[in-house]
Amino acid sequence: xxxxxxxxxxxxxxxxxxxxxxxxxxxxxxxxxxxxxxxxxxxxxxxxxxxxxxxxxxxxxxxxxxxxxxxxxxxxxxxxxxxxxxxxxxxxxxxxxxxxxxxxxxxxxxxxxxxxxxxxxxxxxxxxxxxxxxxxxxxxxxxxxxxxxxxxxxxxxxxxxxxxxxxxxxxxxxxxxxxxxxxxxxxxxxxxxxxxxxxxxxxxxxxxxxxxxxxxxxxxxxxxxxxxxxxxxxxxxxxxxxxxxxxxxxxxxxxxxxxxxxxxxxxxxxxxxxxxxxxxxxxxxxxxxxxxxxxxxxxxxxxxxxxxxxxxxxxxxxxxxxxxxxxxxxxxxxxxxxxxxxxxxxxxxxxxxxxxxxxxxxxxxxxxxxxxxxxxxxxxxxxxxxxxxxxxxxxxxxxxxxxxxxxxxxxxxxxxxxxxxxxxxxxxxxxxxxxxxxxxxxxxxxxxxxxxxxxxxxxxxxxxxxxxxxxxxxxxxxxxxxxxxxxxxxxxxxxxxxxxxxxxxxxxxxxxxxxxxxxxxxxxxxxxxxxxxxxxxxxxxxxxxxxxxxxxxxxxxxxxxxxxxxxxxxxxxxxxxxxxxxxxxxxxxxxxxxxxxxxxxxxxxxxxxxxxxxxxxxxxxxxxxxxxxxxxxxxxxxxxxxxxxxxxxxxxxxxxxxxxxxxxxxxxxxxxxxxxxxxxxxxxxxxxxxxxxxxxxxxxxxxxxxxxxxxxxxxxxxxxxxxxxxxxxxxxxxxxxxxxxxxxxxxxxxxxxxxxxxxxxxxxxxxxxxxxxxxxxxxxxxxxxxxxxxxxxxxxxxxxxxxxxxxxxxxxxxxxxxxxxxxxxxxxxxxxxxxxxxxxxxxxxxxx
Length: 848
Description:
six-stranded mixed beta barrel, 29 helices, about 30% helix
């Protein structure tokens, strides 16, 4: 196919930077991936349905297969969420599948010592030897009455089959120490909607009819889910006169398309939100259908003046006047300007634009707001704007997720023996529930995970872990202050890593198991939502497996269960082999591949062999589902929470969070302390009733302004496939699609005014140093970053991840890893790892 400049430009209605990766908004039939040169015969092959795992959207996709090889990728043509397209991540699927640096066979370590500079001297082994070794180590724990010393951690996973590993293995074996990666990603943002409207999940957005999108601390054209949908919908928003607003210290992709860019001082999002809320209330721009009004209709919200609670009658909300009196009455635009660095006149202008568009407003909050040491309150403050604007669960607004009916796996309860029951009651290594770490997802203390703190728990209790298992994770690279993970894993007697590629974490393993790249080689069912649709999509083998790899959540579990049975512990195998039955035939599995397929059929059966007629797609059987690849449920029903149906203690949208209050009081009681003492232990500044409303907390910052004058801004590349793409030539070549970045290099961006003051220029090699570490990268001057801050994309800096991602595998990184300079800290209400909000100060010095 000849791609002319004219056709190249016409291929997209959004941004030229997307074109290099083939992300169009044209009708699916005109997608570049399906075009052919004039006179050429149609390509021989077929499109096979599967699902991407490049981000947490899990898009339904189709892979073009020729002679058993995956050749190219497009969105599933039946998808109402991605409109038949994929973002740049999707196009990388064939490259990852056939990456020559993928693990091809199981391996074992032959050098006992472990460390960054120590070569493990891997040797290939058979699956039998690998699984026998693992089973022997696990049985030792059972025989020693210490099964709790098994730790299992998961990285990227599938929502359904993960229960067979993450749910069942720890439960039946008997350990409380199983942890998900989720708290290093974005859990804190869920607290915004959770503690106000009772929805602890990722929101959906009605971009079809919205009149105002506020991308706050996220870039939905690049990351943070729904990327193909946003690319598709943004032109329509602009054409119908909608307003796009971007709040971010750096000029993101969506910032380049925005009518207003607010380069907020990192960590002051709560102040900006408070200033906007002040304008919405003092100017009478709140949505009365949702919030309510004063009894006599006269607006009593006047800056600096308290309001009597009995003068206002609320409808779908709770605690508005308390919020005003405790927090908002003094948070004028002038005050917010001093804190946030955004001019007061711009704050007023943006607030009025949002009020004018209400309720068709999407305040789209992302990790940039919440993933900092005081992020829960910032998340509440930003999400509360959706409440004021009445955009909760309405057309053109912010929605709860849509779900689809998924089959449940059989109960494993009767396979859990007394040893497992007792051992599972032990204290978890991640510190959840400690006085300073309530980790209260769902407003229940101790219900959240504190992923990054597991390393600290292991270091504090050196004998607490004897067998460590992890899959699709690379915490020695992806967690802040990763050297803690080096130390923790170096002292573990036996570590099993299940992964597609050897990585930094693999360097500390004793046995490595090569896993399938699940989009093209594994089988599972994924579920998600987007564009007002809940959906389920299949991951299935679309191409021949070139190497001796196995699906970690099903195939490996079956084979390991067989080995444990041979050693006298049959519980896991009996559960898998006796309880799981093919929904169509009633047959039980007899091997690992059959088990994998039966698990997928059980998960998906409710929508291809429903007991009662379903709303949404009609699918006639398993074969049709595999061919179509996706089931889409009915369109979202608006106003689900209205009429006293919100999942909160008051059944209302809570500006005064009774949920948070009860959770903190429960946690304080457990530790024989007051709520204020708990807040002090966690490092939050609020005391008294202020702690129960959205409010601004000044940024917590590591490093003095004198020694570390710049706020460091971390962000994610639109090319990062959950950390598994840096070894691809396409990733390196197209790195320039991230604003300010360059191909085949790693740069830290600085505003030219700051560089002039320091005598620096583009191309200089500089050291970026923080209180905990330093990296050396190239400097690039860029007007798209706020003065006083420097920004660098996360993804480069691998010292052990293939021949492309690492300059010299095991020794020399390509660029620098942001996590080496980010301090190990947490938003302790959620348990989330701090990454954003300017919480780490850095200094920039030229390297001679």
